[in-house]
Design brief:
Distance between the termini: 47 Å
Shape: elongated
Radius of gyration: 22 Å
Largest sheet: none
Helix content: over 70%
Order of helices and strands: HHHHHHHHHH
């Protein structure tokens, strides 16, 4: 019994220590926003790295999600004689939920793992320690530009995902199935509200961008400086970031539609 309590206490102490380190790192990254924007070239390069290289998988995934939404939605709405509302259903599904959530999950798998591996390899190669020896703050020079680049990139990728998904829904619903094009677009225009739908989706994508990017950087920064440690940190990034995204999605949705 004593050994069990000792193990529980040790685990709780390590967990609280990890929470404290993560909180201090997060507040430090927020504090460095003005200094990071002053050297926007670093952020621009990371936006290109994170966004441009994730664009292909985001676009293709959005297109096929739009295909499936239109196909499934048409057969459901047709039962109730509401096939003309297909455009509104596709747009609301993408803008409210699928756009931000699926983009965040893909972003975690593509860009998040790349960030974790990059920071972890820099730590394993003692590049971060070398920066500290030269009086260069690695958080300011390496982590902060990548963090804010991820925050700026996620809403843009989510917008691309939703836009391509709507085009995919139009291709299936209007071109292939034969839903009236005027009804498709007019129902979408009349049913989508700027703040309740579009604004909430943008807010979700920003929150998910902060979450996924921070988890990726934290896992890389705290990884064991060995190949096995970097590999484990990369795996933890996908798992932890995905769970946080799904949990936050439920919480944000509950707040947005109850307030």
């Amino acid at each position: 019994m004593g050994a069990l309590l000792s193990d529980l206490g040790r685990s709780a102490r390590l967990g609280l220590g990890a929470v404290g380190l993560a909180t201090r790192l997060f507040l430090r990254l927020l504090q460095l926003l003005p200094a990071t924007l002053a050297r926007f070239g670093l952020v621009r390069d990371q936006i290109h790295f994170l966004g441009n290289y994730s664009l292909a998988i985001i676009g293709v995934s959005g297109l096929f999600v739009g295909f499936v939404l239109a196909l499934q939605g048409y057969y459901i709405l047709q039962r109730y004689g509401s096939a003309e509302a297909l455009g509104m259903m596709v747009a609301l599904s993408l803008l409210r939920e699928l756009g931000p959530v699926v983009t965040a999950l893909l972003f975690a798998g593509r860009a998040g793992t790349a960030l974790t591996a990059e920071i972890g390899l820099m730590k394993a190669g003692e590049q971060l320690s070398a920066m500290e020896m030269m009086a260069v703050d690695p958080i300011r020079r390496v982590l902060a530009p990548r963090f804010w680049a991820g925050v700026f990139t996620m809403p843009m990728l989510a917008a691309v995902f939703s836009a391509v998904g709507i085009i995919g829904g139009w291709l299936v619903g209007v071109v292939m199935i034969g839903v009236d094009a005027g009804s498709f677009w007019s129902q979408m225009q009349g049913g989508v509200e700027w703040w309740n739908d579009l604004g909430n989706g943008v807010l979700k994508s920003i929150v998910f961008g902060v979450t996924v990017t921070f988890v990726a950087l934290y896992q890389g920064y705290m990884a064991q400086p060995t190949p096995e440690g970097v590999s484990r940190a990369t795996t933890r990034t996908v798992v932890v970031a995905s769970l946080w995204v799904l949990g936050l999605d439920f919480g944000l949705t509950a707040m947005m539609f109850t307030v």
